[in-house]
Specification:
Helix content: 25-40%
Structural class: alpha/beta
CATH topology of the largest domain: Fructose Permease
Distance between the termini: 8 Å
Largest sheet: 6 strands, parallel
Radius of gyration: 19 Å
Strand content: 15-25%
Number of helices: 11
Number of domains: 2
């Protein structure tokens, strides 16, 4: 068995699409069926990447049927709402890891510290009897990234530098997926679709209390989200914020992805 599993926040789906689209060594891609995969699978299809969607309970026998040393990648996209309560995020990620270990050679988390709840995940799963490697996104200084923005802008040091440079006029950082999905982000107890007026009102209140006055558009170089510029401008206009642009890249995602691939390959 040569199976890499990826457990990811919905916000980082574009980076996974990019990696899978550019890896010719993958034999098979399996997406765990849930309510958060539609946009992800549509993007894979647009890139002409083949995949299967499988209910979680049917995963083990399907994986066991895969023979040889060729690589199978399993992707499990988790919901944004988990960020509402950090301890719930940790609990769900840990439970998902436990459930995926039996059929995985290695698991890569597309998460950062996320409120300092995932900092010990590699240590907590380092003694698994199944021999499954568990890794989380780390920068070039081997530090776990703070969050999805920290991973996109080059790691902890550069993220801190950007925050300091913009401390007088704090800003929302919008990657393409963040700009697309910010209305789903659990800042308040309200849902945008059911009560947009109250959602916007409370979100703006929280943002203003945090000192935000601008939106930083993070140009990742990925174009899977349509109308990125328009979505950023919509958010900025709604809150009365100005917009400026910074650069992002896929360096950390690529490094971590190929690192765990090598670990899996060397252990077989």
């Amino acid at each position: 068995m040569n199976t890499m599993s990826i457990i990811s926040c919905k916000i980082l789906q574009d980076e996974i699409v990019w990696l899978l689209s550019n890896d010719p060594e993958i034999k098979k891609i399996i997406i765990v069926e849930n309510k958060d995969i539609q946009e992800f699978t549509e993007k894979l299809a647009e890139q002409q990447v083949c995949y299967d969607i499988v209910p979680f309970e049917e995963m083990p026998p399907i994986i066991e049927a895969e023979n040889g040393d060729e690589l199978t990648v399993v992707v499990n996209i988790l919901e944004l709402g988990l960020h509402m309560v950090p301890k719930n995020l940790k609990s769900e990620v840990y439970q998902t890891i436990r459930e995926m270990i039996p059929f995985s050679s290695g698991i890569l988390l597309f998460y950062g510290l996320c409120g300092n709840v995932l900092g010990d995940v590699e240590k907590d799963f380092s003694m698994e009897e199944d021999g499954c490697t568990v890794r989380i996104l780390r920068d070039n200084d081997d530090r776990i990234v703070d969050d999805c923005i920290g991973a996109t802008v080059g790691g902890c040091a550069n993220y801190l530098k950007l925050l300091k440079e913009n401390s007088k006029e704090p800003a929302f950082f919008h990657t393409p997926m963040f700009a697309h999905a910010w209305k789903e982000f659990p800042l308040t107890g309200y849902d945008f679709d059911s009560n947009p007026e109250e959602f916007v009102k409370l979100t703006k209140m929280i943002s203003d209390l945090s000192g935000y006055s601008r939106v930083a558009k993070v140009n990742t170089g990925l174009n899977y989200v349509k109308d990125f510029d328009k979505k950023v401008e919509e958010h900025a206009k709604l809150f009365g914020y100005s917009v400026f642009e910074i650069s992002g890249n896929q360096e950390i995602f690529e490094k971590c992805y190929h690192s765990i691939k090598n670990e899996i390959s060397n252990s077989n």
